[in-house]
Fold this sequence. Notes:
This protein is α/β, with parallel strands linked by helices. The chain has one domain (21-337): TIM Barrel (Alpha-Beta Barrel). It contains 10 helices and 8 strands. An 8-stranded parallel sheet has the order 1-2-3-4-5-6-7-8. Helix 3 runs parallel beside helix 4, helix 7 runs parallel beside helix 8 (263-281) and helix 8 crosses helix 9.
Amino acid sequence: MDFAFRLEWLDEVKEEVIDPDRKIVDPHQHFFEGSEMFPSYSLEDYWEDLATHRVEESVFVECEEHYHETGPELMAPVGETEWVDAIAKRTEAGPEGAARVRAMVGGANLCRGEAVRELLEAHLEASSLFRGVRKSAVWDPDPALFSIEEAKDVNLYGEAGFREGFAQLAPLGLSYDAYHYHTQAEPFVSLARAFPDTVIVLDHLGTPAGVGSYAGRRKEIAEEWKVGISEAASCPNVYMKLGGLVMPWTGFGFEEAPKPPTSDEIVAVQGDYYRHAIESFGPERCMFESNFPVEKLTLSYHVLWNAFKKLAAEYSEDEQEALFSGTATRVYRLEAAT
């Protein structure tokens, strides 16, 4: 797939912003310098995209940018933390109304076991905004799906080395962001139950697969996905990020349409996924996420958050506050960054 932003295509759908005064904390966004994998996406690009909604704070999530090219391989991810810390300082001096980067989730190869503690301590030393790590486990044998080759199989979460590394998080007060397909729900739940004192955030609604061998099985897969979400919700240390469903490998095909989806179309086609997750976890353990700029392959920022606001209108004011800002603020300890 061509990972490129089709700005003229995105401009085919423009909407008036709903509930423009609603405070938003975006708990999942990236910056890219540009590579064969993904186009450049700077702080200024992000500010331009989110200007239509009242996004006050954000959380950067690792994307393997700016790793150190010299020194021990284990310590390379500290380069990204240093880079994002500098960007965060720029946001503090940014224009009025522009979002501030108030926390970050960095990279760490937890498969290195106890040795990863040195890396985690270096992350913490590099930035006061460092809150946790993500070691993506997303993998499937079907080549049509995006996979992290290091994951190797569906049960990275069960490997002894990974769990030894994972055990280093809670003593340092660090959380874990999990990214995997719905087919990996069982080993994920096993991990969450084995480490009840570690705060875990499940990214992208647990990513129901929908391309390759999973294409044309939407109803069947949705039922499998629901079981996995309900099981994850039974673990009180697990929180849910609501988003990521327009990524190409979920198979909804919005990116292939003549025009981008409207917020009404997102709600109509995907609303039940959000409702099931919120019902399972409760609003106090859920947070809407942009996953920008990855979602920009399919729709614009203002349309995405309009869809979220239409979905959230079904809930009380206190519940909406949790979904849009409260849960993210609490989980990523944003008060400590102000």
